[in-house]
Specification:
By secondary structure, this protein is α/β, with parallel strands linked by helices. Helices cover 35% and strands 31% of the residues. Helix 1 packs across helix 2. The N and C termini lie far apart (44 Å).
């Protein structure tokens, strides 16, 4: 019986995650202008160019449920490699129920300190704020 209950909960959790993802819009908005200064900028530096790739989009969809607002920017530097596709780096802005790709696809190494520095400088320059969290 315990095994059936666990399986039922797993199915419910999966359905919830899938319904969450279905409600999130993905758009492109390259070369967005610099935004006005906000109180906070949160930069998520996500290395999913490994076996964790399968969780990346679900995690981003969950974060997009909150999304940026008048006081905060939520940004993502994402390195991802899915089977059968080349590795890609994406820079994203999470808005309420929307993931906006704000820079063209690139190919960067998330383990390289220059990539890390580039991501922080990009966020700081294009999404100014009084406080910054990484």
């Amino acid at each position: 019986m315990n095994r059936i209950v666990r399986l039922a909960w797993a199915c419910i959790a999966c359905a919830f995650c899938m319904s969450t993802w279905a409600q999130i819009e993905y758009t492109y908005a390259h070369n967005q202008p610099v935004t006005e200064e906000k109180e906070w900028t949160f930069l998520i530096y996500m290395a999913a160019d490994n076996d964790l790739y399968q969780f990346a989009w679900r995690n981003l969809a969950q974060a997009a449920e909150i999304g940026s607002n008048a006081n905060i920017n939520i940004l993502v530097h994402l390195d991802i490699k899915t089977p059968g596709k080349p590795k890609v780096t994406k820079r994203l802005l999470l808005e309420k129920n929307k993931i906006v790709q704000v820079a063209p696809d690139a190919c960067m190494d998330s383990g390289d300190e220059e990539t890390f520095t580039s991501a922080v400088l990009w966020a700081h320059k294009n999404y100014p704020s009084r406080r910054f969290a990484l």
